[in-house]
Amino acid sequence: LTHAHLTNADVAQLDTRSVFHSWSAQGALKPLPIAGGSGSVVWDHDGKRYLDFSSQLVYTNLGHQHPKVVGAITEQVQQLATIAPAHANETRAEAARLVTERAPEGFHKVFFTNGGADANENAIRMARLVTGRDKVISRYRSYHGNTGAAIVATGDWRRVPNDFARGHVHVFGPYLYRSEFWATTPEEESARALHHLERVIQLEGASTVAAILLETIPGTAGIIVPPPGYLAGVREIADRYGIILILDEVMAGFARTGEWFAFDAFDVRPDLITFAKGVNSGYVPVGGVVISDAIAEAFDERVFPGGLTYSGHPLAAASVVANLTAMAEEGVVENARRIGTETFGPGLAALAEKHDVIGEVRGAGVFWAVELVADRATREPVDAATIGRLKAALLERGLLPFTADNRLHVVPPAIVTTDEAAQGLAIIDEALATL
Ligand code: PLP
């Protein structure tokens, strides 16, 4: 069977026979076959084209098949396809330098991982080892990855310095539309969420808390943009109690919000930054931790008990270098910001005026959530069947959507054009009208 002769039905059958899929009961799955892509568009094996308003799992920030990234990976594979992490490699060094160049003053080292989850694992490990404390505070509405057991299952010495992989505490973050704090203004929401965080720290025992781990803007949980003062307030509390602040930029980073790092738009500087996805638009699996000098220096004499076979893989490194270079050369961060302020901001607000099913729209850049409600007054979320019908209506009209709970996330590549963005909004408008 050659690629050209395969139909959607052939590929669906091959998939169903052998592939075990993420987060799903396997029986009723009908994964959409995709044959190819270019920029913000993908197509199936039967020739149907879709505007990719999902960026897959919100990672193809530079779009599909960017020639500079494809070219850099091809060149690297010819030169040296792989080399172990312990060696010095110029592509890896350049990838690390380019990432730190985008970080604030005082960040000069990168620890590379295979993706976002292991970036957070290693940031947490660093925070625990540097503080000698074990608890990690994060939010209920968050996603940080899908690992947790391998190092504590390990039998040799590497388990021992990591044997305190426990002690996770959750707090509510600010989310004015569904406030847990009875707040009616962003200021109230921010102040009360900070008060709650500080009380949890005090009651857990500040001397037991190693890190506060936050997505700068919670992504899969609903693109919940923090209110003014919240992140600065978290920084202040972390400093007061000697706690390390880890900002998870896996989904929000590298042009998604119209900034290099989403926190650039806020009055906050973290101690550790975790990244993946947009750093290379996902062409090769990669992630990492950008490490502030103080934390990096803590491991100058002391062993860092962490590592991965493919840390800083040359193909991943080549894709990072090309992706970041292309983003800078082509003004991709600025494009995302412009699309957010000129097209998605006003366009989604207009859709909210028109369709009662929209409870709230929020976001920045190419990172927007449309929250759908059964009743605007009670804000009751629409059910899964409604989201299912919306997805079907969007796909039928040639838009590949990203949905989560009762929300449609509007998250195309950061290279999306004004025309494509407007076309996507028109399709969403039509699909909402069918509900
Ligand atoms: N952190 C955030 C904010 C994410 O959105 C994700 C994945 O969606 C992760 C971490 C985990 O990344 P990975 O799936 O690459 O392990």
Tell me what the structure shows.
With 435 residues, the chain is α/β, with parallel strands linked by helices. The protein has two domains: 135 residues, Aspartate Aminotransferase, domain 1; 262 residues, 3-Layer(aba) Sandwich (Aspartate Aminotransferase, domain 2). The protein has 13 helices and 16 strands. The strands form three sheets. A seven-stranded mixed sheet has the order 4-10-9-8-7-5-6, with helices on both faces. Strands 11, 12, 13, 15 and 16 form a five-stranded antiparallel sheet that branches. Strands 1-2-3-14 form a four-stranded mixed sheet. Strand 2 and strand 3 form a beta hairpin. It is globular, with a radius of gyration of 22 Å. The chain starts with 7 loop residues before the first helix and ends with a helix. The model has no long low-confidence stretch (mean pLDDT 96). This is Aminotransferase class-III. InterPro entries: Aminotrans_3, Aminotrans_3_PPA_site, PyrdxlP-dep_Trfase, PyrdxlP-dep_Trfase_major, PyrdxlP-dep_Trfase_small. Belongs to the class-III pyridoxal-phosphate-dependent aminotransferase family. It comes from Nostocoides japonicum T1-X7. One of its GO terms (cellular component) is cytosol.
Question: Can you summarize this structure?
Answer:
The protein is built from 13 helices and 16 strands. By secondary structure, it is of the alpha/beta class.
Write the layout of secondary structure elements.
Elements: H1 8-18, E1 36-38, E2 41-43, E3 49-52, H2 55-58, H3 67-79, H4 90-102, E4 107-113, H5 116-131, E5 135-139, H6 150-153, E6 168-171, H7 186-204, E7 209-215, H8 230-240, E8 244-248, E9 272-275, E10 287-292, H9 293-297, H10 314-329, H11 332-354, E11 358-364, E12 367-375, E13 380-381, H12 384-396, E14 399-400, E15 402-404, E16 407-410, H13 418-433
Parallel strand pairs: 3-14, 5-6, 5-7, 7-8, 8-9
Antiparallel strand pairs: 1-2, 2-3, 4-10, 9-10, 11-12, 12-13, 12-16, 15-16
Helix pairs in contact: 3-10, 4-10, 7-8, 11-13, 12-13
The structure holds pyridoxal-5'-phosphate.
Pyridoxal-5'-phosphate is lined by residues 57, 115-117, 120, 143-145, 215, 219-220, 248, 250-251, 276, 287.
